[in-house]
Every structure is written in C-alpha cells, then in structure tokens.
Amino acid sequence: MTEQAPVAETQNPTEHALGALQARFGDAVQLDNRDGYTGLIVAPEKLVEVAQAVRDQLGYDYLTSATAVDYLGKGDHLEMVYHVCRTEGGSPLVLKAQTPRDQATLPSLTGVWPAANFQEREAWDLMGIRFEGHPNLKRILLWEGFAGHPLRKDWHEAYYEEEHKPYDSRWPEGKPFRAEAFNPYGKNVQYPADFDPAAYEELAEKAIYEDVPLGVSVRHDLASERVVVSLGPQHPSTHGVFRMVVSLDGETIQALEPVFGYLHRNHEKIGERNTFLGNMPYTDRLDYICSLSNNFGYAEAVERLLATGRRWQAPTRRAEAIRVLMGELTRVLNHLFAIGFLLNDLGAYFTPMMYSLVERELILDFFEAVTGSRMMCNYFRFGGVAYDLPETMRTTAALMNDRVRDFNTMAYLDELINERLPRAIDQADEFLTQNEIVTNRCIGVGVLPKEDAIALGAGGPVLRASGVPYDVRRAEPYSLYPELEFDVAVRYHGDIYDRYLIRIDEMRQSIRILKQILGILRETEGQPFFAGTPKYNVRVPAGEAYGRVENPKGELGFYVVSDGGQNPWRYHVRSPSFINLGALETMTKGHKVADVVAILGSIDIVLGEVDR
Amino acid sequence: MSQNNGNGNNHHDDFLQELHNPDVPVPENMRSAVAVTSFTKLLDSIYNWGRRNSIWPMAFGLACCAIEMIATAASRFDQARFGMEVIRASPRQADLMLVSGTVTKKMIVPIVRLYNQMPEPKYVLAMGACAIGGGPFKEGYNVVSGIDKYIPVDVYVPGCPPTPQALLHGLIMLQKKIDRQSLGNPNSTPWYGRGPGDEVPLPVLGPDVFDPRQVHVLGRQAKAAQAAADAPEAEDTTA
User: Fold this and answer.
1) Distance from CA of B216 to the nearest CA of A (A)
2) pLDDT (tens digit, 9 = 90+) per residue, A300-321?
3) Alpha-carbon gap, residue A307 to A44, rounded angstroms
4) Where is B12: in which H helix or E strand?
5) What is the pLDDT of residues A385-424, one digit of tens each?
6) What part of B 54-93 touches A (C-beta under 8 Å)?
C-alpha cells in the first residue's frame, strides 16, 4: 500500500494545453470561450492527431468520459466531449469536437484511448454520431433496427408530453392520467408510418452474432470444436440482466462480446425532462446498492455549476461530514456485498453472502432512520443534505440483543463503526483470504496488466488492483477528503485475488475515515446541515460541469450542461461499471468458461448503472 | 360436485358420486372421527397445502428490487419460513416468477420466453412500481409500462422498492390465492385441461417492440395515418 500525494495544481490545465497544442496545430485547436464552458474545441480533421499529442506529450493517458451533446437551436451541431486525465492526478482536460446534425461524423479515438470504444458506440446509438475507424460501430444499449437516435432533442418518446417537467397536465391543478389511454396500442410504443410487421425481418439477434464466428470448423484431428455460447441475460451469475456472447474452443474463451441494454431505463432522456432536483431520486437507481454515493456525485456536479453563480453558499461542515459518513458506509456495504457475490460465483452458494447481508441490515437500519428509506435514500440536496441525523433511532438490529429498541444514533454509529464492521471485515478476511478454493481459483486468473487497465479506462478497485494508485478522493479531492487521513489501497498483480484483497483493504481504510468522521460529527453537533434556504426549484447558471466522485465501483462522473433554465440541457452519467466492463474481454481471453463468471464477479458490476 | 358442469365428464362424475354417497354406512365407533365432506375439498386442502408451502421461485433479478428480494431470502426476513427458499435458476423447475424490477423492451422478449418455459401451474408476482406500471421510468423509450401488458400477473406488490416485509406480504397473498384454487373447478386449475396451455407469443424487436397479438391494430393505425395524410387534400377541394 502506498500513499498518493495530492497533486498541486500549478497551472490551469486548459491554458497549459492550449499553449502547447496551438504551437503545433495552429488554429485547429481553439479555446472554448462560451459562457460557463471550459476546454478546447478541436477541428474534427485534426482530432486524432491532437488526441495523440495530448496523450503522449501532455501525459493525459486516462480517458474518463466521452459523451455527446445535441445543441439543437443553440448552434445546431452535435458536440462530442472528452474528459481526459493524468493517472498521477489533477483535474481533467476537456476536449470537444463539433459536427453538423444532419451528417454527424467524427473520427474515432479508439486507437488513442481504447476506453472510447463503448462510449463512442453509445454516442452512435443514442445520438447518431458516426465514428470513422471504429472497429465495431453497432448499437450498444438499444437493438439494431431501432428507429432513430433517442437522445437527440427532436426525437420524442411514445409517452411524450412536453419538453420539461413539471407538466401542465399534472401541475398545479392537473389530474394524473394513464398514458396508455392516449396511445393507440395501449403500450409505450410508436412505429414509423411505413412500418409493415408482416414484412419485417428482425435484426437484433443477428447483429449480435455477426462478428462472433458461429460456424463449427470441421477438422479431422483431435482439436476441439468452436462453439458460441450466449451467457445471460437470465443467468444466476451475471449479477442481473447482463449478457455475454462467448466463442469457445473446447472450454477456452476465444472471444467475448458483452451485450448491454437489458436494463436501459433511459436515465439520460428522463433526466433532461426533469428539474435539477428532480433527478436526485433517479440517481439512487443507478447503482442501486450504493444509492447515497450516487447522490454525492450528482450533488457534486450540480454544485460545481451553482458555484459559478452569485449567492451560492457551499455546504456546511456538518453537511459535508454527513455526506462523507454516508459515502463511506456505502463503500463498506458495497464491498461486503461484492465479496459475497464473488464467493457466490466461486461456488460458495450464498453462505458468505448471508454474512454480508447481516452487516448490510445494520447499515440499512441507520440509512432508514436518517433518510426514511432503506435503499432509495434521495438524501442529498444542493447545499447540504435533506435532514440532520436523528437523535434516536428505532431498530431491531442485534447490537446487544434481538429486541426492538431505541438507540441513541451516535452510540449506535459508534458501536457500528468501532466494533461491528471491523469485526465483520476481519471475519471475512479470516475465513476467505487463505481459503484454498479462493486462492486456487483466484490467484493468477483474469489478469489485467497495468497498461491495459489505464488504456481501457478501468476505474476504482479494478484499476488499483492493477498497480495504479488512482483514487478520485486523492486525485481531485472533494468534500472533506483533503483533511481526512487515509491511504489509497493498491495491489500489483491485477488478478481476481488482488481485486478481492483490495476490497478488504478499502473497507479498512473506510473504517479509518469513518472513525475520524465520528469526531467531526460530535464536534459539529447542532450546527446547520444545510447552507442557505432549501428550494425546490434551483436556478442553475448556464454552463457545463463534470463532477466526479470515487464510488465504491470506480469513478462516477456526472456531466451536466445547463442553459440557465430549470432543467438540465444534457445529463450524462459516466458510470464506472459500464466502463470497467470494457476490460472484460482482455481479462477473460484464454481462460476457461467457468472463470468468466468469477472474473465478472471480481469486476463488481451493477446493471442499473451499466445500462442506465 | 355442484361446480361440475358435466360436459361429457360422466365417468368422472360417477366415480365421485360413488365416493360421496351418504348412504355408505359409517361404523358406530368411527362416527365421531369422520366428517362427511366433498371429496374435492378434502383433496384440495392436501393438494394446496403441498403447493403453497413449496413454491419455488425463479432466480430472476431484473433491477433494484432484486436486491430487496435477496434481502428477503436472507437471514433477517427469511423466506424459507414459507417454504420458498429453493430458488431455481432454470424456469423448468420454477413455480413462481418474481418480476423484480424495471422491464425493458429489450428484456421483455427473454421474459416472455422464460414465462412460456415455466411448467404449469405457474404464478407471476410483479414486484415494485416498475414491474407494475413502469414506475418512475414509465415515460422512458425503452421501458415497458407494466409486465401485465404481456403476461398475466397474480400478485402486485407496490413500492420502490417494496420492503422485504411488503414482499413477504405479497407472497402470503399468493399462498392465499393458491388456497382458493380447487381441483373441482376446471377454471381455477386450467393446467389439467386436455391440451397444453396457450403460449404467449414472443414480442419482436422491430423499430419499436411489437406484440404479435396487436398486428391488426398496427394495420388500422397505418390506414388512419394514410387517411390523415390524404385528408388535407380533401379539405382543399371542398374549400
């Protein structure tokens, strides 16, 4: 384990990069000087060369987020936005490329940063930007044959009412109605006028298998045959509705293609209709195991935008302490869960999981007492949190015995953080780390080399298990993290075992943070948990912001564009699970098919976040 | 056997009537121990007792609700108290499909296929707001507004997500529903019909998902669209 020193920002990264790039590329690189925007606008024909220079000369080796924005009526172009970072830390450099809406084409950056692969496919699927030179430009979240690119501003869904909430039909004196009643099919569907179901030939499945060699190669020696197996979407080990199409030689993986979109719930389209605050409960449902950490990321992004306006008050110290408390408890919860699931996948069916769930219930009791909900907490607000910690909480958790009783909240937390959770972590460590099955199946399996991990944009425990001490809490510190003492856990082998160990390490570090937070909570008792007055409708200044936090699964980023109205113009989620899955093929190639399940378990995905 | 409609089921009826004949003498010393009841009621109670206490759910998690479903199966809430701890990954071995989460258009095809693969008697429990009616994601372009648009649902459990207590309540409601099913009433036990049950046709992923049962509506819509396209010209001529 090493500690990563916080990197001091000596110079604004944009200005530094602008100087260096303009010297070489001249006018092809321009400063983005729209109000509230940062970054560089790159001419599409020079994009690949500029990206190469940014990676090799300026050292931005890690592409975190790549997404598209539709500026319909505001310049009428599509804009691709890339956020690139250095793995040593520091704030991201923003590159942008613009393309006309009717013939949207940009060069692909998969050659420079392989992490762009899935994200460019997503931009093609949802926004309709064609990427030249992309190795596999197919729809990723929707299916081949879907009509239109839904995130474009002029594309309307079947239940479309208005551009923005609150809808007139419901507010202020409207009545709720059933959208089905207004749809001729009684369902959430719409078809192009010339659609003929009798003549339609389904493309969806065909396209998935197109690139996977389907035919069995008939050979007359003893070599095994190649078969294609579809794992999922209904499979007990895919952690939800994830699907992989694998091509096998005997039992060895030759090629693997993940198939996404079985839980694509259109967070981004719905998010553009919602008000800024109205998106907060939706973020709960992204990574539904860690709802409070997601709140943290979204609050962080919108607060960055709010901070550019007048009359903004930063969250109080107590609010920040409660936020960190929630974030770190969520991390312990998630890692216990992840380890339980990993052991499930290794064949220890549900026994370690039961142990994890016992501790989870203790943490959820606390969440329920504070936020009112076990899972979907919807607790953070712009400028603080929704409520203070209650003085007492009623719980059935067996801290002393099994009776339902009122606990003093701080005493409960004290016992949870100082005794119960450390004991649970030690227990997991004691029973599992040296377990023969765990070591045999995990050590040396699913190795992700350091260079690949960075190039593929892997984040969180997956990246740190491959020897890169990159943690957003240190790389670009937010909230109270600059003053808290903790180490960034790092391991160097990049196999399943290290990804397991790093979770144990991280939980211990979280406990270390939580102990410090307990002190801050006592210190700030009775102080305000919200800065200013809470408002339902926040006016967010026009501009863009990319807020990111270290979620238990990796870097969670929210890219928010505001046009000064009540609703975000664009709301994009850079979800860690989705991008971490980009490394799945590298990890699984050459291993047996049974290992795929364990490797997937070690990445720790949640489908709500993968498909959004 | 008042419920029996007697359509050519004569042999069966005769057999039951013979069994139920009140003239069959009951020995004196046994009278206090024998309650004369309908044979189907006796069979039903045994049959339903067995079924209600050994419902095998399918391991089928869609979204957030699946996490609460796992919590329900775990030690604190302990679904095993109701004989439901045997969670099967294969639809062939499952009695109950817990639709736990948002159903998307891409996922509805495998769900209908899984439903068709389950052996009868089979039950569906829609867990959470999304499975019931689309929930917070209802307006999404890839979201099915309720699983009951495609397959029949027995129990609805509202919540986002429902707490484990709510899910347990839903499961108890399902047990009550099973208790009301009777072997004597072919309508409540359709799986003892002559042929196999009807399969739900698989939806197709076209420009948008379409239900083969709705193809005629599609044709009507196409005609209406055509008429609407022609209409402005007609107005012009009249004016």
Assistant:
1) 10
2) 999 999 888 878 888 899 999 9
3) 32
4) helix B10-20
5) 988 898 888 876 555 555 667 788 888 888 889 988 999 9
6) 59-64, 66-68, 70-71, 74-76, 89, 91
